[in-house]
Every structure is written in structure tokens, then in C-alpha cells.
Amino acid sequence: MAGVPIVSLNGVLLVTIQEELLDQSVAEFEQELTEKVVETRARGVLIDVSVLDIIDSFLARTLHDIAAITSLMAARTVVVGMRPAVAITLVELGLTLPGLETALSVEEGLSLLSPAPGPARTARP
After folding, report:
1. What are the beta bridge partners of residue 47?
2. Fewer Cβ in 10 A, N or C end of the chain?
3. Phi-psi region of 57 (alpha: psi -120 to 50; beta: other; left: phi over 0)
4. Are the C-beta atoms of 46 and 14 separated by less than 8 Å?
């Protein structure tokens, strides 16, 4: 067990990485999260990294992999709360993470994962 809490809320899995993770814990987290996507039939995954001062290349690659894996399972992944210094470091390392959606806050991330409004319904006469 990676020790990363995963909470299911209205079709979205909310995940807050609360401390730096060792590589083994990151791998376990990836496995647990993808299993939870299937178990809950989640349409979205929101990963909050706002408490992290550092995202190393292994975690960055794993976040990218999680987005690719969940996409194959018909779910979207959004990473939220990335600090400017972390983003700068990732770019300096050449880790651009294509396909990984990001948002500045949990609220904005949840907005991205909200179901698209369907066609307007009209009352039958």
C-alpha cells in the first residue's frame, strides 16, 4: 500500500499526495489508483500535488503514465496545485508531459472533470 488516500466522489477519484513518495510507493500508488478507476467506474481522476516541493522524474513519468492508462479506461486525469518552482524544474529537466491535463486548483480541476452538459431537455406536452 502506497499510503495515498483515494476518495471517490460523484464519479471522480480525488487523490492528495501528502508527502514525498519513494519510487516503490509511487509504483504502488499507480497500481492502486488504476484498480480503483475500474472498481468505481470513475470518469475522472484529480491528483493534488500542492504540498510537494519536488516532483522527481520518476513521479512525473508516473503521473504521465497514469493519465495515459486512465485514458484507455475512459477516464480523464487532471493534476492540480503544481507549484511554480516545481513546474520550472520539470521544464528545465525536459519533462513537458504531453497529454497530462493540469489546473491551478482543486476547484478548477473538478470543473474540467465535470460531465459536459447534455442537450437541453424539453418537457413533453
Report:
1. 15, 79
2. C
3. alpha
4. yes
One digit per residue, pLDDT tens: the chain, 125 residues?
A: 567 899 999 999 999 998 888 889 899 999 999 999 999 999 999 999 999 998 988 999 999 999 999 999 999 999 999 999 999 988 888 887 877 899 999 999 999 998 865 555 455 55
CA-to-CA separations, 75 to 20, 54, 98, 125, in angstroms, rounded:
25, 26, 16, 37
Contact (CB, 8 A) for 104 and 80: yes
Is residue 46 a contact partner of residue 113, using CB atoms and an 8 Å limit? Answer: yes
Residues 6+ apart with CB under 8 A from 118: none
**35 phi, psi to nearest 5 deg:** -65, -40
Dist. CA 101–CA 66, nearest whole Å: 11
Q: What is the CA radius of gyration of the chain?
A: 16
DSSP state of 22: -
Indicate the pTM of the whole model.
0.85
